[in-house]
Specification:
Layout lengths: L1 H18 L5 E4 L4 H16 L9 E8 L10 H7 L3 E6 L2 H4 L3 H8 L4 H19 L4 E3 L4 H5 L12 H14 L4 H7 L3 E3 L5 H8 L5 H4 L6 H6 L13 H5 L4 H6 L4 H14 L7 H13 L41
Parallel strand pairs: 1-2, 1-4, 2-3, 4-5
Helix pairs in contact: 1-2, 1-10, 5-6, 5-16
GO molecular function, one term: asparagine synthase (glutamine-hydrolyzing) activity
Pfam family, one: Asn_synthase
InterPro entries: Asn_synthase, Asn_Synthetase, Rossmann-like_a/b/a_fold
């Protein structure tokens, strides 16, 4: 399994190289398991010097730190140095990071805090890379969904059949914010994990759940590149790695509880939107400024599968997460 994981990831990198052989690119680098493995695969493909496969010229890395608590600080600089990348590190305050919020809300059409805390970081990285002249960026998207990176897929009652069922649901429903934001900027992002050659192999993978699912996920990927600096790093979502996870606390200091309660009642009565906390309110204010008449889709009684918190139509009767307001379960 370990050899196959490495083989398919490097084939995925090769497919990206064939599409962008003349395009210098950068990596949005967290220094986590996924981006470390992706860069190790890039190095392996380039070192192979296969005449049929051009080198993928990854020249730079971009990492965003939004707080002193950002856990990526320990890893990303080391990974960039090991791969000879020009490392652009952006230290930014939470207040400054909020400057990305209108862009993210407009492109992603959401006021969900979880999506936006992660997406503002990626949006800033993309804006910085565009300013540096890059049109192509590599990410590590897809690995968690395909290889069991999320803790809710580990241990307990998750036998092999149960794990595969969860993996298959995620594999067929996974969506990512980065491509939409990149397209808005005239850029392109590619993840080796979402290339057809790796995706098909991962979906057909028969996991060794006795080893993989009780302590940590993505064991086959970790063991495929044991030499990578982040091979056995704990999984941290973007908001933890960058430090943007403290955004909720920061916004709570800007909006009093009394102001929130008053505004929540007004929004519920006038807009029929259920807000959960100060960060949700802050995001909704931006959402309303960007979309003063709403999104235009069917809502409430006109929706086939309305979210029980914001009324916007969900994709199907089985969809439990609302991508507009972030409610779960949404129906």
């Amino acid at each position: 399994m370990t050899h196959a994981c490495r083989e398919h990831l490097e084939a995925a990198v090769a497919s990206i190289a064939l599409d962008f052989s003349q395009e210098p690119c950068a990596v949005i680098l967290s220094g986590g398991v996924d981006t470390c493995a992706a860069m190790a695969a890039v190095s392996a493909v380039n070192a192979a010097n296969n005449q049929k496969v051009p080198k993928l010229e990854v020249k730079a890395a971009m990492t965003v730190f939004a707080s002193p608590t950002a856990t990526d600080r320990k890893y990303a600089p080391v990974v960039a140095q090991r791969h000879g990348l020009e490392h652009h590190q952006t230290d930014i305050s939470l207040e400054e990071l909020l400057g990305m919020l209108p862009f993210c809300v407009r492109v992603l059409r959401t006021f969900d805090g979880m999506q936006l805390r992660n997406s503002m970081v990626v949006a800033l990285a993309l804006h910085k890379l565009k300013a540096l002249g890059y049109k192509l960026a590599i990410t590590g998207d897809g690995s968690d969904e395909l290889l069991g990176g999320y803790s809710f897929t580990w241990g307990g009652e998750n036998d092999e059949a149960g794990w595969k069922a969860k993996r298959d649901v995620m594999a067929h429903s996974m969506t990512y914010t980065c491509p939409a934001m990149a397209a808005e900027l005239g850029m392109c992002v590619r993840s080796p994990f979402l290339e057809h050659t790796f995706l098909q192999w991962a979906i057909e993978l028969e996991p060794d759940t006795s080893r993989q699912m009780h302590i940590t996920g993505k064991v086959c990927l970790r063991e495929a590149y044991p030499e990578s600096f982040g091979a056995w790093r704990r999984k941290d979502p973007i908001e933890v790695g960058s430090g943007s996870t403290e955004m909720g606390k920061y916004i709570k200091e800007q909006i009093s509880r009394e102001e929130f309660e008053s505004e929540r009642e007004r929004v519920a009565a006038e807009d029929h939107i259920q807000l959960v906390d100060e960060e949700h309110l802050y995001n909704y204010r931006v959402f309303k400024s960007v979309f003063p008449s709403g999104l235009g889709e069917k809502r409430g009684m006109k929706a086939k599968y309305p979210c029980n918190s914001c009324g916007y139509d969900l994709p199907s009767s089985t969809e439990l997460f609302c991508y507009v307001c972030g409610k779960y379960p949404a129906q």
